[in-house]
Design goal:
Blueprint (H helix, E strand, L loop, with lengths): L1 H32 L3 H15 L3 H9 L6 H12 L31 H4 L20 H6 L1
Length: 143
């Protein structure tokens, strides 16, 4: 009695699971037989060839037709350009930069007058009048 009821419910459960497995197997079989994108592209190109259609030429014909609004012609040119001109992409640059910086400070309140009179070896750079933007017009004319 109880065992028979359990057996019937187990058989019903088993039937549901088998049905689900059958459906899943059919789905997997269909997926394995589905054409790849490359195969789909080849089939589409073959269809165009059979009909004698060249989609690029057809689009180009619209771009020279004055009855087609300018906005649509520009859209067509943009679409055609996407096949010949690469789109620029932003580049994310991540880099750790390390370096040293030395900051030297002088407390002039502690410097003696004798120290200020001491000659310091310094390199003089000739900038070939590279600072003319800081000169007034009079100073520029004096040179």
């Amino acid at each position: 009695m109880k065992a028979e009821e359990d057996m019937k419910s187990a058989q019903k459960e088993l039937a549901k699971v088998e049905k689900n497995l059958t459906i899943k197997q059919q789905f997997l079989d269909m997926m394995s037989e589905a054409p790849t994108p490359a195969e789909q592209r080849k089939a589409l190109l073959a269809l165009f060839a059979d009909k004698g259609i060249n989609p690029i030429e057809e689009l180009m014909n619209f771009t020279v037709n004055d009855e087609v609004p300018l906005k649509e012609r520009i859209s067509i040119w943009k679409e055609l350009a996407s096949y010949t001109q690469p789109k620029l992409k932003s580049v994310d640059v991540q880099q750790n930069i390390t370096g040293e910086m030395k900051i030297m400070t002088v407390d002039y309140s502690k410097v003696a007058k004798a120290d200020l009179a001491t000659v310091v070896d310094a390199e003089v750079l000739d900038n070939d009048n590279g600072y003319e933007e800081f000169l007034s017009e009079e100073e520029k004319n004096e040179s």
